[in-house]
Amino acid sequence: MNRQFFKIVSIFSGLLISVITFAQQRFPRPDFESDYKSPSILVPEPRHGWMEYMDVFILFIVLSLATWFVLKKRSRKGVLYLSLFTLIYFGFYRNGCICSIGAIQNVTLALVDPMYAISLTALAFFMLPLLFALFAGRVFCGGACPLGAIQDLIIIKPIELPIGIRKALGVIPYLYLGLSILFAATKTDFIICRYDPFVGIFRMDASFNMLVLGGSFLIIGMFVGRPYCRFLCPYGVLLNWTSSVSKKHLTITPSECIDCKLCERSCPMDAINKPVTEPVSRKKDINRFVLSVIIIPILMLAGGYIVSKSHVYLSKVNRTVSLAELLITHPELKADPDHIDIQTFLASGKTMDSLVQEATVIREQFRIGGWILGAFFGLSFGIMFSKKTIYRNRTDYEPDKGNCVSCGRCMDFCPVGKEDFETLMKLKS
């Protein structure tokens, strides 16, 4: 059974939204006759078409090798070397772009805006890891994701977090996924790319705040296994869903489990399910499941209503909306030559009426999107709750198919079939 979490803590959502409210200028730079110089921003240079397809080909090969190492070869060392290659190529050489995680936003924008044409490479980077997860588990996380690789390599002494903290933090990826889709659909911002904690490290250039954020994740990651993957990554939500129903998946032991508990201690992700041998009442199990199914639509309606009521606040993240409100409440700022956003708007030649009309349309999009986003939250948490009502006996230690990132550590620690089997059995006794 998936170890999903359903407890929402408002402080985390508040912190998440407050971080997202920082954004860059939306309008094009005006041609001012002054000494002002716009700061340069380091971004990856465009690739030739065939080189972009080469990236897709390399991703496919890496995913295939990761699948082979996990399912057939059962080699932690192979996965480790593969993730090191991924970190060097997709991370430092390709500067963290193109990215399967950020491709969520490209796909969203392509679905809502017929004028936006998503590239085949971006679509391939979005779909390939999900397809592999559907058949082989989260091999993308274990061997093909540079963000996961950089965290995996710095783990020193992982600690087990209390279950209450894991439940609370486990909600954040759902919030982040929903907000990133909402902001991309309303053409507000690509927040996943903007607040990628490791892209500044990959490109050797970032603002001080982003360097602090990336460094903080790495420091925490020395003691908490893959904190970004577990408690922030929005793409991990999609991989969790597809991996949960995967046809095949990493297994800890090639034969009978001897209950040595070494795999549980070796997993920095807390993704090992313990044996469950308690008797289960089928009637009570069914009643709990039926109750959870009834609760799901109630949670969806409640979530949609609550988030839609917050659309005024959420829409202020959009630069057009915030600029329109600023000019309405403080029209005297039009004469302020130091306010770049206002001077950029005035230089664009747009009228105030057109700005207000555009802001009104965007705010309505946020209201509608708020209903959809809230319903998504309600559905997600309802499904989590319903899964908690389903119990089944489990005699072995097994990886959680949704949360396991297929890093292979547990396979390396499992003594079954190894030469030191007898020694470990003596230690166990």
Secondary structure elements and pairings:
Elements: H1 10-20, H2 49-73, H3 76-93, H4 103-112, H5 120-136, H6 139-144, H7 146-152, H8 163-169, H9 172-185, H10 191-194, H11 199-202, H12 208-221, H13 227-231, H14 235-244, H15 262-266, E1 272-273, H16 282-308, H17 311-315, H18 319-329, H19 340-348, H20 352-388, E2 398-399, H21 409-413, H22 421-428
Antiparallel strand pairs: 1-2
Helix pairs in contact: 1-9, 2-3, 2-5, 3-7, 4-5, 4-9, 5-14, 9-20, 16-20, 18-20
Task: Describe the 3D structure.
It is a single chain. The chain is mainly α. The chain has a domain of 252 residues. Helix 2 runs parallel beside helix 5, helix 3 packs across helix 7 and helix 4 packs across helix 5. The chain is globular. The N terminus is likely disordered.
- Which parts are unreliable, with pLDDT below 50 for 5 consecutive residues or more? 1-45
Question: What's the mean pLDDT score?
Answer: 84
Which sheet architecture does the biggest sheet show?
2 strands, antiparallel
* N-C termini distance: 29 Å
Helical content class: 55-70%
Oligomer designation = single chain
Q: Mind telling me the C-alpha Rg? A: 24 Å
Neighbour order of strands in the largest sheet:
1-2
**Structural shape:** globular
Task: Summarize it.
The protein is an all-alpha fold and about 425 residues long. Helix content is about 60%, strand content about 0%.
Quick tags:
two-stranded antiparallel sheet; disordered N terminus; 429 residues
